[in-house]
Specification:
With 200 residues, the chain is α/β, with parallel strands linked by helices. The protein is built from eight helices and seven strands. 46% of the residues lie in helices and 14% in strands. The strands form two sheets. The chain has a five-stranded mixed sheet with strand order 4-3-5-6-7. The chain has a two-stranded antiparallel ribbon with strand order 1-2. The longest helix is centred in the first third of the chain and has 17 residues.
Amino acid sequence: MAETRGAIPRLIDFFADLPGIGRKSAERLAYHVLRMSNQQAVAFADAIRAVKEKLHPCRTCFNLAEREECDICLDRRRDRTQLCVVEQVRDLLALEQAGAYRGVYHVLQGRMSPLEGVGSAQLTIDRLVERVRQGGVAEVIMATTPNVEGDATALEVSGRLAGLPVRITRLARGLTVGASLEQANREMLADALSSRQPLP
């Protein structure tokens, strides 16, 4: 019994560590897992293990991939003249769910935040510049979070791309200032994409 009593609090702690999950929600999730059949619980555990073991950054855009490149980079129907720059994979997923963009992406894996020790060297900006220099990209769409850090990141990227034959735009400011892309609904993201403006 001691092992059983220890297992549930441990599982609750794991769930409570997830973003947006409070202690009460963590308890409900833990007891939901307890009510699963053994087959369901093993499948759940296997799904978690597969995410950790099989997924890695796409060699081209840094989206999550099970192969060398992600499904978006492998999709030859995508418009490779448009390159949308996002901070995190979850921002890419939000734009994909909006269904208004058919270009390709570049994931920076964060945004500049001097107070947290994150500068341009910790992001994938060098690889982004290399991609644009290789040619074929006509427009770079900056889709960073509309706050001080996101704007600073966009300006850093813009400065690094200066002099290259590419148009640099940013999402329209219909997005709430400080809100992340994942918090916006499909209509807001579609409007922001269609009303994008040149980055100064």
